[in-house]
Amino acid sequence: MATIPFHRVNVLTGVKGAMAIEDPVQYANQIKRSRRPLLILGRRVLEIELGGKSLLDYAIEIADASRAPICATAHVAKAMIDKGRKPESTYDVIEIVNFLKDPEWKGVKGEGNHDLVMFLGFRTDIGNQALSTLKHFAPHLRTMTLCKFYYPNADYSLPTILKDEVWKEFLDRLIEELKKGG
Known about the structure:
Number of strands: 9
Shape: globular
Order of helices and strands: EHEEEHEHEHEHEEH
Distance between the termini: 28 Å
Helix content: 25-40%
Strand content: 5-15%
CATH superfamily: TPP-binding domain
Radius of gyration: 15 Å
Number of domains: 1
Largest sheet: 5 strands, parallel
Strand order of the largest sheet: 6-5-2-7-8
CATH class: Alpha Beta
CATH architecture: 3-Layer(aba) Sandwich
């Protein structure tokens, strides 16, 4: 696995870059420490399958195991409803990022702003721009990516994973660890 960004123009230009974490137990521990996690889903969760299981199914399992509400972007909300699960919010990625920048925002459930924001299923260029905005304008948040590419603007990111089997194994172990509670 490599910590090279998917887009060559996305090299780290500042002093703060994502901590690349390969261990699903460490990822799960970061998620478990959060009081109000949020999972933001992009359109690619509808396009990717890992071992016959959709990335949307993985996302729903991660949200359930981590008690994180889901913010559905693009066409994700309809697909979730078709699976019997209604997202807690539906915004486009720019809207949700703008809300998250405000430390006084009450969050998607009205219980207070989120302290950990996880991204899954975004095009890498859009994801990096959203993460860059939060990195610079939302110091009250920690950010995490669950995609198989390294995102230098996140706080925590997976290194770039070249094989889907390795990514699937990571997500399976992450869900298993989250279900253990703690």
